[in-house]
Amino acid sequence: MPQLSPSRMEGLIDLRQEVRQFSRHLQQCAASSARGGDPHAYSLTLRQMIDSRIRASDPRLKILCYAAAAELGIVVELHADECRQAMAGPRGFSLRVLFWAAHRRMVGVARARMPGPMPEPSFR
Question: CA nearest 7: which of 96, 74, 94?
């Protein structure tokens, strides 16, 4: 397995911290907006905040928001095509790693929430 250069590793660590800060910020904003501590209102507000930021954000922030949603267990859709521009930039490596790690986590969350038994793989 190839070793990551220290600068790439630092970039990944910084990006992970940024996602965690963004997640906490979203949670705090949703909690202050939800009326009377109602968990349903909080969940709805949090989802709406994530959805609006993914739609309105620049490509880099879309990836950060997608990763924050995955961290919070909120299933959202974001296609790689929407993020290609950010992943091609100077911090592209870190954003590609973040996107695919978040995507893998998002798929796991979505599968865990699917009702009924998992379908059989089609490749058998």
Answer: 94
**CA-CA distance, 50 to 81, in Å (whole number)?**
19
pLDDT tens-digit profile of 26-63? Answer: 999 998 887 777 888 888 999 999 988 888 768 888 88
Residue 81: per-residue pLDDT = 64
Gap between the Cα atoms of 42 and 44, Å rounded: 5
The answer to whether the CB of 63 falls within 8 A of the CB of 95 is: yes
Instruction: Supply 65's token pair.
Output: 């928001």
Q: Which residue has the tokens 């501590």?
A: 37
DSSP 54-93: HHHS-HHHHHHHHHHHHHHT------HHHHHHHHHSTTHH
Identify the H or E element spanning 8.
helix 6-33
The pLDDT tens digits of the residues spanning 9-28 come to: 888 889 899 999 999 999 99
Q: How many residues does the chain have?
A: 124
